[in-house]
């Protein structure tokens, strides 16, 4: 990470880790969403896969997690929280994001969503809430909260792009969940892509990283 291009700000009570475009002009925005026990720096290791012309926004989730870090929904009652459980944090994030874009005259740019684990759940929800602003959704090792599919089914078109990445050896979020999500999206008329790394657990597997690099180059 190039430190001179990054900074952290407090925007409406939410910390945002920002990477400014390394090139002269900004032509896209990437929203990087960490998982349970993560924070605004957890996604830094993925930044170098993102085009240098992009502005990166990495928020800190609002809920304290256990044993440390932060989360988007409490897992005390359910390992995979539903739509309503995520909604307060997602509403807050959406408010902060839209305010930031307006204040920086970036409202015209499309947003790509890159989420890990719980962050993937947030990315699915955001795609259903602001579909006209979203270009690409990249859920890694994640799940779709119950209730989200109904919202996606009500959208007027099926132009959202989903590239789903998962590890076959994932013991926290079974790969069957990713396959079911892709199947459900296909039934709704979307054209999701699925990459399964046969050797990876709950992480971004090597073969899927190579796939992502191929579609971004």
Concise account of the structure shown:
The mean pLDDT is 94. The protein is globular. It has a single domain, classed as 3-Layer(aba) Sandwich (Rossmann fold).
Task: Write structural notes for this entry.
The protein has 5 helices and 10 strands. The protein has 217 residues and is of the alpha/beta class. It has a single domain (3-216), classed as 3-Layer(aba) Sandwich (Rossmann fold), CATH 3.40.50.1820. A hairpin with a 5-residue loop joins strand 5 and strand 6 (70-71). The longest helix has 21 residues, at 83-103.
Give me the CATH superfamily: Alpha/Beta hydrolase fold, catalytic domain
User: How many β-strand runs?
Assistant: 10
The CATH class, by name, is: Alpha Beta
What is the number of helical segments per DSSP (H or I, 4+ residues)? 5
Portion in helices: 25-40%
Q: What distance separates the N and C termini?
A: 19 Å
- Adjacency order of strands in the biggest sheet: 1-2-4-3-7-8-9-10
Strand and helix order: EEEEEEHEHEHEHEH
Content of β-strand: 15-25%
Radius of gyration: 16 Å
Largest sheet: 8 strands, mixed
- Count of spatially separate domains: 1
């Amino acid at each position: 990470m190039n430190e001179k291009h990054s900074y952290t700000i407090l925007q409406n009570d939410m910390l945002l880790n920002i990477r400014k475009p390394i090139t002269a002009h900004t032509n896209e925005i990437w929203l990087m969403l960490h998982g349970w026990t993560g924070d605004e720096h957890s996604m830094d290791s993925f930044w170098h896969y993102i085009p240098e012309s992009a502005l990166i926004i990495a928020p800190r989730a609002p809920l304290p997690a256990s044993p440390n870090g932060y989360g988007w929904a409490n897992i005390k009652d359910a390992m995979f929280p539903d739509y309503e459980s995520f909604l307060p944090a997602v509403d807050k994030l959406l408010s902060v994001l839209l305010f930031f874009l307006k204040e920086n005259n970036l409202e015209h740019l499309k947003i790509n969503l890159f989420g890990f684990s719980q962050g993937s759940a947030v990315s699915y929800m955001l795609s259903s809430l602001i579909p006209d602003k979203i270009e690409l959704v990249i859920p890694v090792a994640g799940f779709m909260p119950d209730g989200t599919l109904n919202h996606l089914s009500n959208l007027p078109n099926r132009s959202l792009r989903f590239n789903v990445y998962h590890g076959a050896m994932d013991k926290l979020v079974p790969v069957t969940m990713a396959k079911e999500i892709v199947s459900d999206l296909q039934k709704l008329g979307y054209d999701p892509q699925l990459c399964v790394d046969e050797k990876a657990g709950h992480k971004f597997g090597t073969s899927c990283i190579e796939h992502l690099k191929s579609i971004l180059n």
